[in-house]
User: Fold this.
Amino acid sequence: MVGVNRGPRSDDPTSGRPVGVRRTLEQDTTTRSDGPSSLGGPWVSGVLGAIQAVVFSLAVVVVPAIAMAVAANAQLSASTSGWTAAVPVASRLWLLGHGVPLVTGIATVTIVPLGITAAAVFAVFVSARRTIVPTRSAFWSAAATYTVGTLLVAVSTGSTSGLQLTSAALGGLAVALVGLCWGLLTGPEPGPLADRAAVLAARLPQVVRDGARGAATAAAVVALLSGLLTLLWVMIGWSTVGDVLSDLRLDAASSISLGIAQLALLPNLAVFAGTWIAGPGFAVGSGTHFGPDLVTSAPLPAIPLLGALPAPSAGGGVGVWAPVLVGVAGVVGGWVASRRTEHMLWWHTVVVAGLVGTGAGVAAGTMVALASGVAGPGRLADVGASPVYLGACVAAQVGAGALLVLLVTRAEVHAALASAWRSMRSRRREGAGGERAAAGDGSPDKAGADKAGADKAGADKAGADKAGACTAPADSSAAAETAGGTPAPSRAGAPSTSGTVSEPGSASKTTATSSVPKASGASTTATPSDDAQRASDDV
Assistant:
């Protein structure tokens, strides 16, 4: 109260009046700063923000429906009373975006248009950033108010079955929690709520925090890849989409209405693209399958968005390697988680990789569960993929990639790999040196063997020549005596025979020279003896 003065008396000569007034005003200002609303505490801001979110997200669906209904009725007649019928239909579509089944006369639609869900989450996010005070009371009051608003819309549109009301409560609460956490915990001035959340997160084990961080990163990478693939599909099938639109022959109002409906289902196609990348694929109608290994199509309703589905030629080929991209997302998530795992035990690394894969798998399975279901009667009763199987595939692929990078970035693994590389290089050097040494030692041995063979051949030839030289004079003398002549003396100073004999194994050459004077009338041809003939045969 302004009248309360806890300071010195104003008439005290040691203290002036302005001091007391200043203390009173400071106390009053502090008391009023506890809540920005004059109606009560911060919880009021949560109520107001949730009401804004419900109205804005509902208007995103209802306003275009009213405009389309008015335009269509204007073309048919002057009456514009048909817009009242568009409000309940648009409200049911808004509820379908929150997971409430849409009951019609021919089928019960359960597929969630994720575009409407995204618009509702964004509306809560904006209200949280602009209106709601970041306190616990405001947070929970906003979540409760948004849930109650979803239930009121369900009751007002006649969606009063037990399944529909339960789905409305759970869907509204889920949308509110996601939008509030996104807006209040990531704002420029988070406030005490973010501080409380940081304290709670700090109490978690380090491996859990690292695993959650890596899982969020991997899931974001998979979502980015899915969006890029969806854009590629739309670009490739744009001509087919145009053909479907031209065959429908819609007016301007109907074309705009159909375009808005396609935007609401475009995120579903992005989720299906994620199942295609992961490997399991998806179905759009009974008997169909769209996967990287095989594409089996069938006649489908004339919906332009279905023209962007992969053609049968897209199955097989390079597309079978698409699951590798999910492993790359796991590598990125593992790298983000590995920045704080240097000093962890090795089995902590395995736990972190498992958490990264599990978190990404749960996120992917949840999105597939929302995007799949019954889209209409007949063939459209089976649309989407199995969330459990898809989640398991994503968890395995992301976990494997995360484990790979987490193990490679550890110091002991670095040391082991470096040691193995050094030992392998040393063995290669030793092997190359041994081969060079063997090649160098083998050449002299071969040359020596060749030389020894040549020496042996020379020795054999020398022996043959020596034998011939020794027998030639005797044979000549015998021939002369047989002819009746006397052997002629040799010339003075001229040797009758000369020869040089080498021992076996010597490299020197051996020559034998025989000089025999010719006798008149005698034959000069010497007949070799039996020993000389054997020596020649041996050579």
Summary: The chain has 15 helices and eight strands. The radius of gyration is 51 Å. The CA atoms of residues 36 and 42 lie 7 Å apart. The chain has a mean pLDDT of 78.
